[in-house]
């Protein structure tokens, strides 16, 4: 729902805001990636193609965040969140654990998402936010940088993801990992050459953390 909304709104958003410095910066980054000077029409088509591929490009993610802002503000939608997530986050935070978000979505988009979730405003639960400005989610260096920024040894950090390659990168950096296995939405490899040994949970309720 969020991605189709951004895809449909992109042409109008670029036409209305494409000359604003903070928007132009990201449109120019797309043009550079595209390999040549190109029209805004081509930039929009490129971005829509990236949405179709679920590409995690920092420029796309920054622009999506700006587009979603209007949708949240005008109450056109709330951010979809699995029913087991908010109760677990509240319990973990209540027991004193600091919680952080690391997403390919831009930090402004993350704050909008958790601020307008189906379960209400969850932003007070989080102690910090990280996006791909720190590095890609499949690169171990990103997790090393996050641990350094948080000031907690990587071995004390549990990283949750539904993507095995992200968990591999976090583990290389020394973090503990759990695959949040949302089988119906994001099936992950289980057997054969792609097998892995990250602990699995099908719900946040099954993730037991030290108090
Ligand atoms: C949380 S803001 C929007 C999410 C988003 O744009 C995205 O690509 C999700 O990436 P993630 O790394 O959180 O799986």
Automatic annotation (TrEMBL):
Name assigned to this protein: Enolase-phosphatase E1
GO molecular function list: acireductone synthase activity
Record-listed E.C. numbers: 3.1.3.77
Organism: Pseudoxanthomonas sacheonensis
InterPro entries: Enolase-ppase_E1, HAD-like_sf, HAD-SF_hydro_IA, HAD_sf
Keyword Amino-acid biosynthesis listed: yes
NCBIfam families reported in the protein's UniProt record: enolase-ppase, HAD-SF-IA-v1
Matches recorded under SUPFAM superfamilies: HAD-like
Keywords: Amino-acid biosynthesis, Hydrolase, Methionine biosynthesis
Lineage start: Bacteria, Pseudomonadati, Pseudomonadota, Gammaproteobacteria, Lysobacterales
């Amino acid at each position: 729902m969020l991605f189709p909304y951004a895809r449909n709104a992109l042409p109008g958003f670029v036409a209305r805001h494409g000359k604003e410095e903070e928007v132009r910066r990201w449109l120019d980054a797309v043009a550079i990636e595209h390999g040549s000077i190109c029209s805004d029409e081509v930039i929009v088509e490129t971005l829509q193609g990236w949405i179709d591929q679920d590409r995690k490009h920092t420029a796309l993610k920054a622009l999506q965040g700006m587009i979603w802002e209007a949708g949240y503000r005008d109450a056109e939608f709330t951010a979809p969140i699995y029913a087991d997530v908010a109760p677990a986050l509240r319990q973990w935070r209540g027991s004193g654990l600091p919680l952080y978000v690391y997403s390919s979505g831009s930090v402004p988009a993350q704050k909008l998402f958790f601020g307008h979730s189906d379960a209400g405003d969850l932003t007070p639960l989080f102690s910090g936010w990280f996006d791909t400005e720190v590095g890609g989610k499949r690169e171990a260096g990103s997790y090393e940088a996050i641990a350094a920024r948080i000031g907690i040894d990587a071995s004390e950090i549990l990283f949750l993801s539904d993507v095995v390659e992200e968990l591999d990168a976090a583990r290389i950096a020394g973090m503990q990992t759990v695959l949040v296995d949302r089988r119906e939405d994001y099936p992950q490899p289980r057997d054969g050459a792609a097998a892995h040994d990250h602990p699995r949970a099908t719900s946040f309720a099954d993730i037991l953390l030290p108090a």
